[in-house]
């Protein structure tokens, strides 16, 4: 099973919420990397659409999950993925190959799965930078009181 997770939004280091803390306490932070694609402002949080050869990059963090069999269902619930959620889900968890530390590694990434028409692009591809100036994102993170995403 893949144990690496690429995060680019509210689960990144620098974000303070129960689910982000859970991830950090139960995994090893491997470092920063980037994924080719476009980062969108969904309203209260971001979504990524990986696009190879786009020339656009999304910055993110890679964590090695200590126990993926236990952790992924918890993270899936937060992201609204899997059994019990209406199809199509807003995100899908997909296996992605990323360049990291001079090698190619397999990582899970939660990819945005709804239409992107009318969504603003976060041109920098850097959620943490964008987060600092985005009041809607900051307010959303403050509402996160457990491991379930609250709108």
Can you walk through the features of this model?
- The model has no long low-confidence stretch (mean pLDDT about 90).
- It is globular, with a radius of gyration of 14 Å.
- It has about 150 residues and is α+β, with helices and mostly antiparallel strands.
- It contains four helices and seven strands, in the order βαβββαβββαα.
- Strands 1, 2, 3, 4, 5, 6 and 7 form a seven-stranded mixed β-sheet that branches.
The count of helical stretches stands at 4
Q: In what range is the share of β-strand residues? A: 35-45%
Broad shape? globular
For the termini, the CA-CA separation is 31 Å
Q: How do the SSEs run, as a string of H and E?
A: EHEEEHEEEHH
Count the E strands.
Answer: 7
Q: What is the CATH H-level superfamily?
A: Gamma-glutamyl cyclotransferase-like
Low-confidence stretches: none
Using only CA atoms, what is the Rg? Answer: 14 Å
Q: Number of folding domains?
A: 1
Helix content: 10-25%
- At the first level of CATH, the class is Alpha Beta
Q: Provide the residue-averaged pLDDT.
A: 88
Structural class: alpha+beta
**Major sheet description:** 7 strands, mixed
Key descriptive features of the protein:
single chain; 151 residues; alpha+beta; Hypothetical upf0131 protein ytfp; seven-stranded mixed β-sheet; 23% helix
Summarize the structure.
With 151 residues, the chain is an alpha+beta fold. The protein has helices at 18-25, 68-79, 127-131, 135-143; strands at residues 4-7, 27-41, 46-50, 57-65, 91-100, 103-112, 120-121.
């Amino acid at each position: 099973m893949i144990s690496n997770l690429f995060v680019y939004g509210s689960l990144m280091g620098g974000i303070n919420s129960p689910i982000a803390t859970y991830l950090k306490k139960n995994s090893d932070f491997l470092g920063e990397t980037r994924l080719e694609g476009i980062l969108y402002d969904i309203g209260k949080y971001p979504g990524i659409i990986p696009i190879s050869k786009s020339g656009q990059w999304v910055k993110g963090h890679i964590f090695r999950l200590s126990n993926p069999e236990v952790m992924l269902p918890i993270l899936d619930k937060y992201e609204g993925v899997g059994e019990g959620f209406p199809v199509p889900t807003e995100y899908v968890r997909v296996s992605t190959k990323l360049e990291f530390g001079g090698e190619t590694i397999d990582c899970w990434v939660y990819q945005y799965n709804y239409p992107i028409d009318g969504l603003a692009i976060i041109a920098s591809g850097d959620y943490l930078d964008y987060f600092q100036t985005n009041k809607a994102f900051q307010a959303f993170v403050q509402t996160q009181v457990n491991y379930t995403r609250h709108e």
